[in-house]
Amino acid sequence: MEERRRIDRVGYQAKSVIVVCDTGESIFVETRNVSPLGIAFTMPAGSTDLKGKDIIIVADTMIMYADVTRQEEQEDGNFKVAISAKKFTPEVLQYLFEHIVEK
Asked: Residues 47, 35: contact at Cβ < 8 Å?
C-alpha cells in the first residue's frame, strides 16, 4: 500500500539561535517555517557557511539537532538556510544539558 501522507512545513516566524556543534559558535537567526523533519530560517549577511555542518537550533519551545542541507545568499545579502533533522545522540544531549545554562 502506498503512503499518501506528507509532512509539509508550516509558516512559523520566531527569533531563534543556532549553535554550530564543532565550534560552539552561536548565530541569531529568524525562523521562517518548521516541520517535524526540518526548519528553514534566514541568517544575517556575513554569517559562517554552515552547509554540511551539524547544528542545534533553538526556536521558542523547540530544540532540533540537524544537518544544514542548503544555504543560499539572497539579494539583500542575508542567507536562506534549510536544515534536516537528526536524532539526538546521548553525547549531544549531554552536551546540551551541561552547556545550556552557560549562555
From this structure: no
